[in-house]
Amino acid sequence: METHFNSTTKANVEAEDAKHTTPRMRIDTPTTTPPSTPTPAAAQANHIYREIKSIHQSLAPLKSLAPSDLVNTSLTRLVHLCIQPYGSELISHFYQTDNVQPLCQALQSICAIAEGHLERHWAQFILSETERTKDAPTPHSLLQTFPYYKNYIDLSLLEASLLRPFLPSSPSATLNFAFLGSGPLPLTSLVLPTHFPGAKIHNIDRDAEALALSERLTRALSMTHCSGAFGGVDGGGVRGVG
Predict the structure, then answer these.
(1) From the Swiss-Prot or TrEMBL record, what is one GO molecular function term (predicted)?
(2) How many Å is the Cα radius of gyration of the chain?
């Protein structure tokens, strides 16, 4: 039997075939490179940045940075972040983070003010406690309760190891150390002589009140090796205190 196809029949066949044909998927070539997957170091650097930013946001609005629950907690968080050992890759990622430099600079200024308040508070506390009664704890025992006392002890070990190669080798040589901006609680001045017995310490600060407070503290601690001096606000000469 002979079959004849006209144009209508052909169109119907093509339509039927199209029903059973898998449609072609359109794959567009991306015009931009997708972001790379963060490495563990990059992810940790970003986490540290967010933590530091959170600390700054909690401290920046405060009218006073004197010791308080919020100030103490925030600074303790910051200290714990700073004393951890970090690899070079993480550090590189951290400093490449957007706005990290102005954030760190702003936080440094806040920490300097808070540290001054903290030192003044503890110097006054130690003096008031030891002068209150004869049975009061010794100044040395009270000093060791300072929250960051252990950190200063550890830091003094590093400082001593850095200084030794540059100091006179003769055991009879007199050593003199000067600390600029020693503040009301000159802890480094107080612990460094444990590494260099007989050394003379000169504390220098532009704040005469803070220096006078540290003079009282060093006398209470029987630290006769310490002396103090302060410079005028106008940058003039250095005058002795005590």
Answers:
(1) nicotianamine synthase activity
(2) 34
